[in-house]
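Our collaborator T.R. sent over the components below with a one-line note: 'Predict the complex.' Nothing else. No constraints on interfaces, no templates requested, no preferences about which chain binds where. So this is a plain run: every listed entity goes in together, and whatever single assembly comes back becomes the starting point for the next discussion.
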Amino acid sequence: MLKLIQDTLTSQVHTLWLVFKHAFVKADTVQYPEEAPYMSPRWRGRIILSRDPDGEERCVACNLCACACPVDCIALQKAEDEDGRWYPEFFRINFSRCIMCGFCEEACPTNAIQLTPDFEMAEYVRQDMVWEKEDLLINGTGKYHDYNFYRVAGKSIKGKDKGEALNEAEPVNVRSLLP
Amino acid sequence: MNWEVGSGLNIGVILLTVIIVAAMLIWVERRLLSLWQERLGPNRVGPFGLLQVVADMIKIFTKEDWVPPFADKFSFVLAPAIIMVAILLSFAVVPFAPGVGVIDSNIGVLFVLAMASIGAYSVMLAGLSSDNKYALLGSLRAAAQMISYEVFMGVSLLGVVALSGSFNLREIVLAQADGWYVIPQFIGFVIFLIAGIAESHRLPFDIPEAEQEICAGYHTEYSGMKFGMFFVGEYLGLVLISSLITVLFFGGWMGPEFLPPIIWFVIKSFIFIAFFILLRAAIPRPRYDQLMSYGWLFLLPLSLLNLLVTGAIILST
Amino acid sequence: MSLLFYLAAFVAVISTVAVILQTNVVHALIYLILSLLSVAVIFYVLGSPFAAVLEAIVYAGAIMVLFLFVIMMLNLGQHTRDQEKKWLSLKGWILPCLLAGVLLFQLVSVLSSYDQNMAPETVGVLEVSALLFGPYVLAVELASILLLAGLISAYHLAKK
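Returned assembly:
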């Protein structure tokens, strides 16, 4: 009996007092539409396609993002322009399936596909959740400002032949006997 | 204006006020809970979210009022009406202030107890007529809990009745002119408080409607305004228990002169309503058998002992 | 007051008849509670508020709740309803009705010979308690010992 009373006082009444003290603590709530919450730059939100510093599309339509995607929400088709650059003919992300896991960003060899701190993507029509390339493509470099895939890669395009890329040696003539 | 006890105007105003206060408690409870949980609570509809009640009412009135085809329709419809009627009738004997009240009955305390026991039918019939195993479990628990706790509720009140020498709630208030009964009857007050929570099945004693175990218990099958009546009935019970505690143990409308009596009554009652909400915010639900054994093995002997000692002291002085 | 009395008596009679005729047990029980409550109103009108409230608390509030509790456990369904319907055949009713009619006639004739004073004095809580703990204290104590014995034996049976 005494133990019960003691427990009541030390446990229940103490709990009540502790909870009551919370009345004088400022609320943690962020009043969202008026007050924007802080979003970290590495937040995994809406997916974009970035451009390289020269203003060309970074995406080379390698399909690695589509392979990495666990919910199969990315669809694209490779095409090649007259310069020899590869680019996606269409690039489609179904955001009603996307789970914002960021695997596509991890898989991307050219830093083209990136996740942004934007999450306000609600739509009234479900079909509007499917974003095409023109919706995804931005006029900027995203998180990686200096990277330009074709400038470091060995692939020859118009205006940059093999061996002219950054830190790239001249191609070795394998048929010659001299070094 | 005719402010006499029992005048038509008086009855109408009390009825309306009580129902409106019970409806507003939806908002008050959510705001207070969020205050104690470091949130903001509903603040979008109208100033401070006050119109949230109106929005909730519109929602609950326009919802489909569905009666399950397997339910016993007669008792299914009757059940929510019983709890509303029983609790509203209990307000008839509560003296709010001098001249404010519906009736000054000589059997006021007993009448409240009688109405509380009638209210138990509401939950039992609701669970039984729903023909749903969760509802049945909920109403079984409700029945056992309410019958048991009615006993201690009655016994804990008898100390106050013995001190004041009357079952009339107004006379009980007047008898507290030289000192509130909470001081001589502190054990009675604590037991009445606990039994009151169990009687209105509020958290932490909401075992009959435990969402986590039996998904809302006896009102699992209810929707629309029938559910709304249970909901408002619960808040009405909360108001009733708070005002009864005020009347029986805290001197009713008595207080320093600078405020009118009715304001004192409202302030005191509101403190207890807030305390009930704090209990909800802080204390977890006990297990069912713990609740029953706590009641029968601890509260009942304690309340009997309290009554015995009170009687002995009254006789010796 | 006499209007209230007749109204309550009317409700009591109708609901009691409904208790007998109702085949659904739960509905019958609701009518029984209604009948007890109307009897409580009659007590009140006849000047015994204490008895009225006790009727509501003890009979309607506690005992009938236990009945309902048991019904909840029994899982009564359509088959019990059919059984009840079978029992309510006209043939089994004729003789009891006739005998009850004789009793009713006697009751009415006895009651009509009394003077019908409908305004008795009110018997408050204080008078009832003074009587209970004054001249009838032995009966109260005996009843409480009986209840205690019942309590202990119920506890013993439940422990087994």
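Summary for T.R.: The interface with chain B takes residues 24, 26-27, 30, 33, 37, 49-50, 52-54, 56-57, 60-62, 64-66, 68-69, 71-72, 124-125 of chain C (CB under 8 Å).
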